[in-house]
Amino acid sequence: MRTLYVGNLPWATSEEELARAFASHGEVLSARIITDRQTGRSRGFGFVEVNDADADQMIAAMNGAELGGRILTVNEARARS
Predict the structure, then answer these.
(1) Cα Rg for the chain, rounded, in angstroms?
(2) Which helix (H) or strand (E) holds 58?
(3) Quick check: keyword Lyase in the entry (predicted)?
(4) Is there a domain that residue 13 lies in?
(5) Would 77 be classed as within a structural domain?
(6) Is 22 domain-assigned?
(7) Which of 73, 16, 8 is nearest to 44 (CA)?
(8) For residue 70, which of 47, 40, 35, 45 has the smallest C-alpha distance?
(9) Quick check: is 16 in a domain?
(10) What is the DSSP letter of 13?
(11) Is 0.85 topped by the overall pTM?
């Protein structure tokens, strides 16, 4: 399993929409959108956990792709230090 960072998400994107956008390029294990603790509003980025074998193909396909009128930034998530 690998985790992909997805930036520049439209504010109204749901976790289901995010998973669906990536699922056409491989197996999606989970998707989550990061929200502001106080307002509950999307912070405009999220993470998608994917099958290890599909990760590079997904990054190539989705980095620079358009979702809801915005151009996505996709790369492998870095571990917190």
Answers:
(1) 12
(2) helix 55-62
(3) no
(4) yes
(5) no
(6) yes
(7) 8
(8) 45
(9) yes
(10) -
(11) yes
